Every structure is written in structure tokens, then in C-alpha cells.
Amino acid sequence: MKWSHSEKYVMLSVLFVLGLSALSYGQAQVLPNTGQQITPTAPANSSFVPLNPGLSDNPTYLAGQAATSVVSPDGKTLLVLISGYNLVKTSSDTNNPTDSTQWVFVYDISHYQPVQKQALSVNNTYYGIAFDPSGTVFYVSGGADDDVHIFVLGANGMWAESATSPVPLGHLAQAAPPANLGGVGLEVKPQAAGIAISADGTKLVVTNYYNDSISVLTQSGGVWSKVAELDLRPGIINPSLTGVPGGEYPLWVVIKGSNTAYISSIRDREIDVVDISNALTPTLTTRISVPGQPNKMTLDASQSTLYVAQDVSDSVGVIDTRSNTLVDNIPVTAPNGLLPKSLSQFKGSNTNSVTISPDGRSL
User: pLDDT per residue over 30-59, tens digit each?
Assistant: First the structure.
């Protein structure tokens, strides 16, 4: 859809506020230096929900650094992925390796209030989580562990990691420590970041943040494995372009249909478009320049428009996926009158994520 400037209202929605153990339900949170407050009653009937994984040896512990949330295809299950440093100490002030993990929190949202059903432990994560089109499987990128985790819904209605999980992406196997730990550059670990699945459920695409590449996975006999990798740098694809910037630090990926992947390259401020119709030979088809550092992205219902959250430029880029061109750039600075005039000119909205309402009217 093409929005007029009068319709471009960008709303900041807080689903969960984490790590605020001192914040009780209904209590306002003061925003530093603005004179404003966020309260859980700003949207009607809302509340802050703490993320408690239910550790038997530390029952009051709250996890922090929620990075991504996704909703199941049937709209009944919400997953909240934690990506950060959840370091749980023992009584002797050393790290507890069993508890110091990342988490996927599972919520039943089929009724008026969300109900936490599970907290699933994952050793390492980095933003990426995606539901299978069936709604009975979801996938989590394994961050520095350089793999993909697979969780399956059991007959008892509970989720558990698959026996064939995690799936290695192979960069660690190529490492030669201490000079190279598997990423691009000396002593750089890999980092499996964004993850997306094709509409037909046959292909997974993972962005390798510290390898300047994507991995493509397919399954045979119900078992997923990596079948291809595409380095996104121009000089790797075509040696005559050595030194030309492009494709570095790929963070996020969305897939249009089953054949086209869009990847956000943070360092080079571009969206890389990749043809994945043949999973064995993914091919970069075009690069779309954007004004800011592109972070997370989302497609509208028709998949004809891609919205790109852009850091630095404090904006959301609008890309027409039929022509693969940037057609608009929506500033996200607060509208006139919402902030004191003395603050309205400041930059630093740190735009990093974007979603669209089911009716397509609100971004």
C-alpha cells in the first residue's frame, strides 16, 4: 500500500519490559531526560509481564535481553526469544553454566491474557527465530554456536528440541584457532543471526553475521542440513569487484514466497536480494541501497512491500518488491507536539525493529 504522509504514524509497542524486577504491575517507568513515563496501562488492559524461566535453584531470577517475538500461524502461540548475557551466579559468585543460557518463552495467547506455558533453554542465540508454516515446528539460530535449533510440538501440547537438533552450519569446523575462530577476520567467531523459512516450508535461510554470507538448509527424510552458502561480498562473487563494498554484516532475512530472500546488510546499508529457487545454487540478483543501517524487516500481507527498520537515519525504508526499489522513507521521530519542542530535533531513535498490524493500517 502507498501511504500519504498524513497516514504515516509509527507506533512504539512495548510487549514485554524485561529485567525490571522492581517494577510492579501498574507502576510507571520514568524515561530519563524526557519528563515522560511509560505505564503498563497506556494501551487498555495491558500489563508488564516478567520473564521468569522458573529455575529451581533461583526461583526469583528474571531473564533479560528479549530480542525477538513471533506469533504462530494460527495466532494462538507467542514465542519470545532471549539473546544476551544471562549469567546466573552461584553462592560462591561463579557462573552457573546450567542456568546461564538463553531462553525461548512460550505463551498461550488464545485467550484475553497471555499465559506462560514453557521456558525452553538454548545455549546461544542471536535474534533469529521463525515458525514453520505448519505451526508445529519452530527454528532458532544458534549465534556463536554456529548452528540452528529445531523445536517440535509434541502430542501433549508441549515443545521439545528435536533429536536431530542442532544442525551445524559448518563455520566452526573450518576454524583454525587461535588465528581464526570461524568468522571473517582474526579471532572472530561465527554468528548465526536472522533466520527465515520459505512459504512452502522446504528451505531455511540463515544470515551469518560474522561471515558476510547466508546459509541455505533443506531437509531430506525429515532431517535438515546445510546444502549451500552464498558469500554476499561483491569481490567474492566476482573477483573483478574486489574492494567494492557490499553484503557485509548481514543481520536479518525475510523470504517472499518460496524463491526470493531479502537480507539486510548493516555495514553497507543495503538490502541484498537473493534467488533461492534452486537451494543448491542461491544467486544474488540485486542490491538495494537504503539511507540507514537496515536492521529487522517485515513484508506486508501481499508481500509486495518490504518495510525496513533503519538505525542512524531514524526511519523505516519502504521497498517495492515487484521492482526491488526503495520507494519511500518514513521518519520515526515523534510527531510535533508529542515531545517537548526542545527535544524534537534530537536524533537517536535507534530504529531496530518493525511489524505491521493484521489489517495493514498500522506500522
Answer: 777 777 777 655 566 676 788 999 988 888
